[in-house]
Specification:
This protein has 46 residues and is an alpha+beta fold. The protein is 41% helix and 33% strand. One of its GO terms (molecular function) is acyltransferase activity, transferring groups other than amino-acyl groups.
Length: 46
């Protein structure tokens, strides 16, 4: 849900980036993507 800022921030902290909002049968959702480089960066920090 685009209004769930806590979840969005958690995903951003894990290296995901917002790409936009999509409409699903359950309502709007935030489409987020994590690149391989972002994954490697967050993995090396943990």
């Amino acid at each position: 849900s685009p209004s769930n800022l806590r979840a969005i921030r958690c995903y951003e902290k894990a290296g995901f980036e917002r790409q936009g909002t999509v409409t699903t049968p359950d309502g709007p959702a935030v489409y987020m993507v994590q690149t391989r480089q972002a994954f490697e960066r967050t993995r090396s920090v943990a």
